[in-house]
Amino acid sequence: MPSFHRFLVFRVNPLWIQLCYFVCVSALGFVVLKVLKPKGVESFMPKDLDMYFMSVSATTVSSMSTVEMEVFSNTQLIVLTILMVLGGEVFVSVMGLHWLSFTFKKQQTENKVDSVCSDLGSSEIELGVVSLNDVESKTSGKEDRYAINTSFSEDFRLNSIRYLGYVIWCYFLVIHVVGVQLISVYLIFVPSARKVLKNKGLHKLTFSVFTTVSTFTNCGFIPTNENMMVFNKNSGLLLLLIPQILLGNTMYPPCLRFLIWVLGRLTKRGEFNYLLKNFHHIRYKHLLPFRHSCLLVVTVFGFIVVQFLLFCCMEWNSEALKGLNTYEKLVAALFQSVNSRHSGESVVDLSIISPAILVLSVIMMYLPPYTTFLPTKNDERSGRSREKEKRRKGQLVENIVFSQLSYLAVFIILICITERKQLKDDPLNFSVVNIVVEVISAYGNVGFSMGYSCERQLNPDASCKDAWYGFTGRWSDKGKMILILVMFLGRLKKFNMEGGKAWKLL
């Protein structure tokens, strides 16, 4: 068992560990969804590939859909909720933090045992006469002041990591509990929102929990076929979801750092100050330096303001916001702008918005969540340079790894090949632009989709029927399998942020 632990910690790349995790969770989710019966099973039964696609989409928090959401039964919606929790970045990261704490503790124990054994001598070990008293006397005689300080420092770091885990769990639970309560109260006091659920046969509690989890994890699934378009007049509900979107993704590092600072002020515990000043030693990538966190806040809200202003200018009198008053249009524009980064919940039909907004949305979907416009200090990245020194052995692998744009280009080309017949026969729906939007949305784990319309067919098909699922639902099985791969790689793209450096454009 110890040798297996050493193998996982020091030999196995974290990329492969997380890949196995997401693949296994997706497979288990598919089996459970397959066993459970959807609504209207007599008239419709999703294909196995579509059910697996939906399981992968929920686990990778991508919200790409090939099946209408209202097809799923209440029990299946609960399963999708669990998959979104297990695949959410905050949950995965805190589990990794617990693994890191266990690793430090294990390593610290092994180091102490190795040190004691080396001091006692090989002869005593072979005779098996080492007792606890021997260890205590031997170590007490050997320890100097530096060793005591080192041991204390390691214990303090381990304790700080444990505190960080508690803080994140509280952050996670409080936001979900408060979010569910707020949505439930809104549904009680707003008859129009409650009527939507009644007409669609959705339970209020299931909707509240499902929507809160999906919003916080930035998955983008909503139990209604129309996503949030059916609630475009419920501005209060949209305003309740916007903070949850930010707290679960782009604003998570600044909020986490601020929460640790507040707890440090209130409790006077040294562990919280240690977390703020020694973030490099913690090795938790979501705990950013103070300056980086401040710049991230400015960048996030800067992107939102730019999108909001452009959306209002281009779409104010368009078909997308038709029927809304001034206040509802402002809230809808803000909600759409916030969701374009990684959430994917939508109050408008993307197929009818202006090309300028669509291009901006594609750029926002491509950007990683912690993109910072202003540069950070070089000394804040000194810890990363040390890690790069340790990775020289993997230099050959790094040289052949492509950049993110290269992978996107490859995926788009492959899908254009698999869907070449539809590209020729149905060019308005199966346009290269629509495929690009779908691929980047899947790679960014966003979930925006251009959809499919029978009215855009050049050669109308009498059997064609519009459905409330993503454009991917009309793709061939090969195209869907490629997009499944895109969602997995997109969920793990954090391991390839520096890929493609071997390619020099001169």
UniProtKB/TrEMBL annotation:
Coiled-coil portions: none
Cellular localization per UniProt: Membrane
Membrane topology value: Multi-pass membrane protein
Keyword Membrane: yes
Keyword Transport carried by entry: yes
A GO molecular-function annotation: monoatomic cation transmembrane transporter activity
Biological processes annotated in GO: metal ion transport
Family: Belongs to the TrkH potassium transport family. HKT (TC 2.A.38.3) subfamily.
PANTHER family named among the record's database cross-references: HIGH-AFFINITY POTASSIUM TRANSPORT PROTEIN-RELATED, POTASSIUM TRANSPORT PROTEIN DDB_G0292412-RELATED
Name of the protein in question: Sodium transporter HKT1
Organism: Protea cynaroides
Highest classification ranks of the organism: Eukaryota, Viridiplantae, Streptophyta, Embryophyta, Tracheophyta
